[in-house]
Amino acid sequence: MCQFKNINSMSFAEYKELIEHGDTAIIFLGHDSMFPVSIQQGGQTQTKYGVIRHSSDLIGKKYGSKVTCSKGGWVYILYPTPELWTMNLPHRTQILYSTDISIITMMLELKPGSVVCESGTGSGSLSHAIIRTVAPTGHLYTVEFHQQRAEKAMEEFQQHKVSHLVTVKNQDVCKEGFGVSDIADAVFLDIPSPWEAIRHAKSALKSEDQHLVNFLLLRRLMVVESALSHPALSKSREHA
Ligand SMILES: C[S@@+](CC[C@H](N)C(=O)[O-])C[C@H]1O[C@@H](n2cnc3c(N)ncnc32)[C@H](O)[C@@H]1O
């Protein structure tokens, strides 16, 4: 659940009322046309309706405001929820969308305080949603073996003021696992060969009542025989 705040720090895990310098905001022109901007004193953003001047048009206004651009057209300035981020993020990989994310969140029974392991981080679409759900006391451990993707994800988590809720590890989850043991309430795998990470999922999970879902099973309904017959699964509940 989002907290309502009048503070000067925007976070994807909370909500605040007023637009300020340093925020990431969503410029909404329509359902099929929106994009994120970093709000800067003196900054400006070009749209098809003309320029938006950050200092005079945005800073100090309420999120959700209708703002008139220099050519007379108008846009809405929206607070950046994980759902809006999923629709607007820079794609570095294929991503999970909100319909699947809501099912994953339900199947993993995520809630504030949950500790979650996922791999790969990819473009961070699922990661942002998990972080918002487990905040303020939970944590996400996310593993990505592509160095630039891992670095970019860390950068975005910092910009979005959620870096205290997430640990990014740049390593191969199939070889080195999640870097934690006996700590996770849930594990989610969105990698090409999830069966190779099952033993690491087992070691990351708390010993009882945990959840393991992998995207291949969830979405494509593929029966990954080697994974299903793996002894590690006897310790987890399979939801596919
Ligand atoms: C489909 S993308 C994940 C998308 C992510 N769920 C999202 O919603 O943005 C798969 C990612 O897994 C990473 N990956 C694949 N195999 C991996 C492995 N063995 N260890 C760590 N990362 C891996 C890839 O580099 C890629 O970034």
TrEMBL record:
Q: Does the keyword NADP apply?
A: no
Example GO BP: tRNA methylation
Which keywords accompany this UniProt record? Answer: Methyltransferase, Nucleus, S-adenosyl-L-methionine, Transferase, tRNA processing
Its subcellular locations are: Nucleus
This protein's GO CC annotations: nucleus; tRNA (m1A) methyltransferase complex
Q: Which residues bind S-adenosyl-L-methionine?
A: 123-126, 144, 190
* Enzyme class of the recorded protein, top EC level: transferase
What region holds the tRNA (adenine(58)-N(1))-methyltransferase catalytic subunit TRM61 C-terminal domain?
73-215
Catalytic reactions on record:
an adenosine in mRNA + S-adenosyl-L-methionine = an N(1)-methyladenosine in mRNA + S-adenosyl-L-homocysteine + H(+)
Q: Per the record's keyword annotation, is Metal-binding included, yes or no?
A: no
Look up the EC number in the record and give it.
2.1.1.220
Q: Which GO terms describe its molecular function?
A: tRNA (adenine(58)-N1)-methyltransferase activity
Q: Tell me one Pfam family matched here.
A: GCD14
Q: What is this protein called?
A: tRNA (adenine(58)-N(1))-methyltransferase
